[in-house]
Amino acid sequence: MASMPRRLLVIPIVLTLVGCAEKNYLYDKPNATAAQIDQDLFTCRKESTRNTAIAITPSQRIDREAFNRCMERKGYTITLEK
Length: 82
Known about the structure:
By secondary structure, the chain is mainly α. Helices cover about 50% and strands about 10% of the residues. A two-stranded antiparallel sheet has the order 1-2. Helix 2 packs across helix 3 (about 65-75). The longest helix has 18 residues, at about 5-20. The protein is globular, with a radius of gyration of 18 Å. The N and C termini lie far apart (about 45 Å).
C-alpha cells in the first residue's frame, strides 16, 4: 500500500511537466536591428503578461496569443519552430 501514494504523487508531476512544454516561435522582421528586436520583445512581453496567472516560471505568465498579436502589429512574421 505504500506505493499507492507514490503513484498519486507522480501523476501531478507528469501533468505539470507536460503543461510546461512550450512551443517555440520564430519572429522575423526584415532589416530589424538586434536592439529593435530586443525592444519589441520587451514591449510585447510586458503588454501580454498576465498578472493574475499562477505560474511556475515567468514565461508561463505570458499570454502567447496576445504576445504574437503584438509582434505581428510591429511587423514581424511569426512561424512555429520545427
